[in-house]
Amino acid sequence: MRINVLTVLYNCALSDSETLRSILQTNLESIKLNMIVWNNGPNLLKEQDIKNYLELSQNKGITTSIYQDVRNLSLSKIYNHFINKLDYDFFVIFDQDSNIDCSFFQNIYHNSHYAIVCPAIFPKQKIDKQCFPSDFEQREQVTPPGEFNLSNTRTINSGTALSKDLIDKLLDNHHYVFDEKFAFYHTDHRLFDLIHATPQTAMLKGLCIGKMYHDMTCEISYNELSERARLEIAYAKMLMRMYRARNPKIEVLRNLFYAYKMKKKDKLSIKSFLKLLKCVITKEHPRSYASINKNVKPINSNVSS
After folding, report:
1. Which long-range contacts (C-beta less than 8 Å, at least 24 apart) are formed by 301-305?
2. Spatial distance between the Cα atoms of 224 and 23, rounded to a whole number of angstroms
3. Which residue, 195, 217, 239, sits at the end of a domain?
4. Directed axis angle between helix 252-265 and helix 227-243, to 10°?
């Protein structure tokens, strides 16, 4: 089985990523693992850090390619670029701070007939509280381990294995998998919106198996979040409001008023508020303008030439 793994780093060395470290401890029997690491900035990775990780992954039998672009590009654009480009049986996305167990890839291998294979997600802030997968409408209602219907379930991007069959069905119907109007927060919510809205995918089955521990913003007090994080959440909430409406074009005035209410409630500065207004008018995240060169090559790799 061929599994592609895409891990996006931001302000994190390869050696400091819990995700990359835990992947090196997994059981890869019968699996050809292709690792893609995308450094999204703000600084380039150190050469010794790159050399060390390429050696470790090569010793594990993992093909690894490292890309670097310090522009902090939209995650949805990074995801779509590699989903469209590479060959695989399953495609797995990770954030940099996920901690998976050694059986993670074996769980995919032995359950390859499912459209999605994902672990139960536990916040590192509350390790005894499962938060995903959950009911599509009622997030507090979690999905227990076992089989579930894609029609009424959602989970986070990190740690979710998407089958090639599911991805092909989405591409055939919509020509994309991740909505590029979204950049960071709620890219996963929009993915499951798309799955639910597509009859060919909503009828498919998924499997929740194993556990994963992950940093969850929703478990952090709003007062502890930076201004930047609060603005990013505001972008995501505004875009979800727009694109879950029946006719977002006639909602502009209401959305402008909603943005004003968010400014006061979320304690946004004037500068952040103006950026949010721009999002309302353009109907996309400000980072959506930047694109990835279709012919971009890895900066470093342990792939034999």
Report:
1. 301/54, 301/63, 301/64, 301/65, 301/66, 302/54, 302/55, 302/57, 302/58, 302/63, 302/64, 303/63, 303/64, 303/65
2. 30
3. 217
4. 150
Say if residues 193 and 101 touch (Cβ distance below 8 Å): no
**What is the spatial distance between Cα 83 and Cα 154, in angstroms, rounded to a whole number?**
19
- Using an 8 Å Cβ cutoff, are 122 and 134 in contact? no
The DSSP bridge pattern shows strands 300-301 and 63-68 to be antiparallel
Whether pLDDT at 160 is above 60: yes
Residue 260 C-alpha from the chain's centroid: 29
Question: Can you read off the two tokens belonging to residue 294?
Answer: 């279709």
Q: According to DSSP H, which parts of 88-226 are helical?
A: 104-109, 164-174, 187-197, 199-202
pLDDT in tens, 42-79: 999 999 999 999 999 999 999 999 999 999 999 999 99
Last residue of a domain, one of 201, 217, 233: 217
Are 44 and 10 a contacting pair, CB within 8 Å?
A: no
Same domain, 178 and 227: no
Whether the predicted pLDDT of 264 surpasses 70: yes
Please check whether residue 178 is in contact with residue 78, taking contact to mean a CB–CB distance below 8 angstroms.
Answer: no
Q: Does residue 56 sit in the same domain as residue 162?
A: yes
pTM: predicted TM-score of the whole model, two decimal places: 0.93
Residue 22 structural domain: 2-217
- Look at residue 264 and tell me if it is in a domain: yes
Domain contains 150: yes
- Which CATH number belongs to the domain containing residue 140 in this structure? 3.90.550.10
Inform me whether the pLDDT recorded for 217 exceeds 80.
Answer: no
Q: Which two tokens stand for residue 295?
A: 């012919």
